[in-house]
Amino acid sequence: MNFKSDKSFALKMDSSDPLKSYRDKFHIPKKCNGEDVIYFGGNSLGLQPKSVRSYVEQELLDWEKIALAGHTDAKNPWLTYHEFLTDQTARLVGAIPEEVVNMNSLSVNLHLMFVSFYRPTKTRHKILIEAKSFPSDHYAVQSQIKFHGFDVETSLIEMNPRDGEDTIRTEDIEELIEREGDSIALIWFAGVNYYTGQAFEFDRITKAGHKKNIPVGFDLAHAAGNLNLKLHDWDIDFAVWCNYKYMNGGPGAIGGAFVNERHLKDESLPKFLGWWGHDKKTRFLMDHKYISIPTVESWQLSNPPILQLASLKASLDIFDEVGMKSLREKSELLTNYLEFLIHENKNDFIKIITPSNINERGCQLSLRVKSNGKDLYNRLMQSGVVCDWREPDVIRVAPVPLYNTFEDVFKFSEILFSK
Ligand SMILES: Cc1ncc(COP(=O)(O)O)c(C=O)c1O
Predict the structure, then answer these.
(1) Whose Cα sits closest to atom 13 in ligand 1?
(2) Which of 10, 281, 401, 417 could be a cystine partner for 330, CB 3.0 to 4.6 Å?
(3) Binding site membership of 194 for ligand 1 (Cβ less than 6 Å)
């Protein structure tokens, strides 16, 4: 694509955008003067689909009118509500329906998965993680190591980029796994690093892990609804994600989980159990003999929050209608256009630390600001740009294909480079 730096180019791109009608399906926050903000914060909290209200109101109405009977007689019976999301979730992450479920939240699901997949022994007890992964993942991983009676000092391998580089090379990950693999019990990577925006090569990391008999899991917080994922084909062992970022499920939305089909019937996998993982036909016999659902639903503990499922369902309906392939096509153009405008402005105060290879990134670009970055961030916010600041020196911006436009990107770059 030959991008141009004048506004008419952006407007032309918007008018020929096959997804342009989708912006209108979202509430775009307004500036004081009533104009839309430039919302580049979808990597942190996605916007509200206008349809959410009616999806949630339907459940409020059934609760109001029929209360307890809603479990079986609501328009969308609550007993099976989570199943209404299964096929769409599977298409979203490239899984088969038995492999996905929406439950709990990301960090909780991480722990539930580690119960099953982190099974350290005297000789194989290490967890491989990116040194700069999200803090919650570090806390969780450290606590898992300690829970199993091991020492974080000797059981955690934190991988850094090479000196002078911002992102990790896949060949270095492969080399480390090959070298240290016999002592590694679990590989835990982000799909997309929250800080740099680097998308990792799922299939190569998974292959390298499996060659050494190591289970491989991914945190998809910044990948779900952003990348065109193929979790099943890549043979990933397990993954968890949140639904409040690119997935637009609302603040604190219910999380998602994937477990590869290969593991679903493995009765030897340790698991924490609750009644929502028990065989559906006999669940209400209320006896104490546990029979597992033969899908990832057996990792469920509690009956799920219906209002949260309803708001996620509204968003999944939109994702399913558009499809990740078309979303990704537009996303690549939008982010490439943003990168083009930043480079066109030949400035010496911003460095894009996100990889320039489109296969190694999603929507987000992370801009390292040489000095007074916080001032620049504040100026952007005051000018009606919503993005975020990550200490010590990075502004993260994410043009999201469902609701951002090429004009948003153009205006953002005008504000960024205005004196
Ligand atoms: C990469 C990543 N992992 C984990 C989390 C924690 O998510 P939760 O609060 O849903 O457990 C976040 C939250 O933003 C995140 O960005």
Answers:
(1) 221
(2) 401
(3) yes
